[in-house]
Amino acid sequence: VQLQASGGGLVRAGESLELSCATSGRTFGSYVMGWFRQAPGKDRELVATISRGGNTRYADSVKDRFSISRDNAKNTVTLQMNSLKPEDTAVYYCNAYVVLTSYWGQGTKVTVSS
Q1: Among 19, 10, 22, 32, which Cα is nearest to 62's?
Q2: Rounded to 5°, angle at Cα 9 from 2 and 67
Q3: Could you tell me which residues come within 8 angstroms of residue 114 by beta carbon, excluding any fewer than 6 positions away?
Q4: pLDDT (tens digit per residue) in 93-114
Q5: 79: which strand partners?
Q6: pLDDT by residue (tens digit) across 59-99?
């Protein structure tokens, strides 16, 4: 499984950004997909996940601001980030979990200025 994340960049606080992750594999619909992030000097943390059936879960810090969705026909997962804050600054990683194995993309950097 290969993952390619895109959409990061530099934005101002309060603005929005959309991250996208293109995924290889013929059984994308069976993957649990997620976004994680890692800020400088901090551990990688869960941002949001979406199950095969479309159930979503969010970190408390992003709830009501971020939205994760998936398009099984296009093998993509998207993270819509609204009302961004400087503390959202991090490298964001796409993750696919399938058959007890976790796969990671290369990460895309998001910087939010105050």
Answers
A1: 19
A2: 70
A3: 12, 13, 86
A4: 999 998 889 999 899 999 999 9
A5: 19, 68
A6: 999 999 999 999 999 999 999 999 999 999 999 999 999 88
With helix as H, strand as E and coil as C, how does the chain read? CCEEEECCEEEECCCCEEEEEEECCCCHHHCEEEEEEECCCCCCEEEEEECCCCCEEECCCCCCCEEEEEECCCCEEEEEECCCCHHHCEEEEEEEEECCEEEECCCEEEEEEC
Nearest to 35 by CA among 79, 73, 4: 79
The contacts of residue 99 (CB under 8 Å, 6+ apart) are: none
- How far apart (Å, rounded) are the C-alpha atoms in residues 32 and 12? 31
Q: What is the dihedral of CA 26, 52, 92, 68, to 10 degrees?
A: 120
Token duo for residue 98: 């399938």
